[in-house]
Specification:
- It holds the Pfam family GcrA.
- InterPro entries: GcrA.
- This is GcrA family cell cycle regulator.
- It is built from four helices and two strands.
- It has a two-stranded antiparallel ribbon.
- Helix 2 crosses helix 3.
- It binds a DNA duplex (11 and 10 nucleotides) through helix 3.
Length: 212
DNA sequence: CCCTGATTCGC
DNA sequence: GCGAATCAGG
């Protein structure tokens, strides 16, 4: 696989949204986690909480008997802590490690993170719903929206299961730019939570996309 | 063990 | 430019 503009764009979006490199790699397919990280760095869009970085200056390398790689050149420890220069539109610098900076965002239904005024992220997240939900009966949609009734303006959230007699689609007004209405967007697009806080374990009834 | 991102370096 | 290998922390 090669890094087409389309794939790079998806990488940027997901990376900006906080998706892990693994998730991005799975999503894009054809690339490894390392490939994603490498590409992200090359694109210059790193600067995200690394589990390793915030620690101490790493320098001491353990001498392994069979060390195929030469010792890296000693790097001068940079103690330059730049004062935060609030330049609108400029890339957000690393938040000071000692001063935890909370991000205040409103969270919509389903943990959907709304964009703040400063956040400009027009590109729409693709990502179809990952899990099958019990298909709650949507609000009154008297007329069942069938497959042929789908267009860009109606919510394509499935109600019921394909093959069932009353299988249809939500059919409400779609959230502009999204394939679903506002309500189902809240279900389809989940905020990326810390693993610990992540809701259910994988509820996949069939195997699952375990690749590794 | 699992996961994470960072970095290196041969290609 | 790419990404496997490696490192290092959780």
């Amino acid at each position: 696989m090669s890094w087409t503009d389309e794939r790079i764009e998806r990488l940027k979006n997901m990376w900006a949204k906080g998706a892990t490199a693994s998730q991005i790699a799975d999503e894009l397919g054809g690339v490894s986690r390392n490939a994603v990280i490498g590409k992200a760095h090359r694109l210059g869009l790193e600067q995200r909480p690394s589990p390793v970085k915030p620690g101490e200056e790493k320098e001491a390398k353990k001498p392994v008997a069979a060390a195929p790689k030469p010792a890296p050149k000693p790097e001068a420890p940079k103690a330059a802590e730049e004062a935060p220069a609030p330049i609108p539109g400029a890339a957000r610098p690393n938040p000071p490690r000692s001063a935890p900076e909370m991000q205040f965002r409103s969270i919509g239904p389903g943990g959907f993170i709304r964009q703040g005024p400063g956040d400009q992220q027009p590109p729409i997240p693709p990502a179809p719903p990952r899990r099958l939900v019990p298909a709650k009966p949507s609000p009154e949609v008297a007329d069942k929206t069938g497959l042929l009734d789908l267009n860009d303006r109606v919510c394509k959230w499935p109600i019921g299961h394909p093959g069932e007699p009353d299988f249809h689609f939500c059919g409400q007004n779609a959230n502009p730019g999204f394939p679903y209405c506002v309500e189902h967007c809240g279900v389809a697009y989940q905020a990326q939570l810390p693993r610990r806080d992540r809701r259910p374990p994988p509820p996949l009834p069939f195997g699952g996309p375990r690749v590794r």
